């Protein structure tokens, strides 16, 4: 299918009348040139933004490109590689962290949007030899296989249990006036934003239930 020439700026030296078919090779050249112009404009208009974050209790001052996601700031600028980049579209939950106690997908938010916020990553929940109750439950219940999604699962579950204790209902909560019972259906619904490609879901649910009972 021929490419139709539009505005005058895309005519080849003004020799083609508007509406004339444009050869594919010429279109490819123009497309590449237009891409370079766009990149030059982006490069000339971006500038570092100073962002102050409290990461796992430690204050951090970063100067970042304003387009830097919170996930990339954590991984590439602070070396906190526990949070994983899975789909980079907010669909798998591998990048889940907690911001001011609320769980979010860090791949979908810009770091500069969280200036002054407190961020908790998997590194701030527990360390080898000093695991949280939830981390210990994941180990004892074999709630992982490859482990790639596990940091996001644990961050999400940690915040989810706080939501339950605060009385937040889910889509499947039967009684909106009392405490939600952590049934398999309830836990599965609340954790539905975190995918496990190894399908360790039954063990993950049991680990969360075990940790909830321990901290009740």
What labels would you give this structure?
single chain, 216 residues, two-stranded antiparallel sheet, 37% helix, elongated, disordered N terminus
- What profile does the largest beta sheet have? 5 strands, mixed
Work out the number of β strands: 7
Q: Tell me, rounded to a whole number, the average pLDDT.
A: 86
Secondary structure: helix percent: 25-40%
Order of helices and strands: EEHEEHEEEHHHHH
Low-confidence stretches: 1-18
Return the structural class. Answer: alpha+beta
Number of helical regions: 7
Distance between the termini: 66 Å
Describe the structure.
The chain is an alpha+beta fold and 216 residues long. The protein has helices at 24-45, 70-77, 122-125, 133-140, 150-165, 184-190, 201-215; strands spanning 3-4, 21-22, 49-55, 58-64, 96-99, 102-105, 118-120. The strands form 2 sheets. A 5-stranded mixed β-sheet has the order 4-3-7-5-6, sandwiched between helices. A hairpin with a 2-residue loop joins strand 3 (49-55) and strand 4 (58-64). The radius of gyration is 24 Å and the shape is elongated. The N and C termini lie far apart (66 Å).
């Amino acid at each position: 299918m021929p490419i139709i020439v539009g505005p005058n700026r895309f005519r080849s030296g003004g020799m083609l009348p508007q509406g004339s078919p444009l050869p594919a090779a010429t279109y490819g050249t123009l497309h590449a040139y237009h891409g370079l112009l766009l990149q030059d404009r982006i490069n000339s208009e971006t500038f570092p933004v100073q962002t102050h974050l409290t990461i796992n209790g430690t204050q951090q001052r970063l100067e970042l490109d304003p387009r830097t996601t919170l996930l990339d700031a954590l991984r590439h600028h602070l070396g906190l590689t526990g949070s994983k980049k899975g789909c980079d579209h907010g669909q798998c939950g591998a990048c889940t962290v907690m911001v001011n106690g609320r769980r979010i997908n860090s791949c979908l938010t810009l770091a500069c949007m969280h200036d002054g916020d407190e961020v908790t990553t998997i590194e701030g929940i527990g360390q080898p030899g000093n695991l949280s109750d939830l981390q210990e439950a994941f180990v004892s219940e074999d709630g992982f296989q490859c482990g790639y999604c596990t940091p996001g699962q644990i961050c999400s579950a940690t915040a989810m249990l706080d939501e339950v204790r605060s009385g937040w209902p889910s889509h499947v909560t039967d009684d909106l006036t009392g405490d939600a019972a952590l049934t398999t259906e309830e836990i599965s619904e609340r954790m539905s934003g975190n995918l496990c490609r190894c399908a360790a879901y039954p063990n993950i649910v049991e680990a969360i239930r075990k940790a909830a009972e321990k901290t009740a």
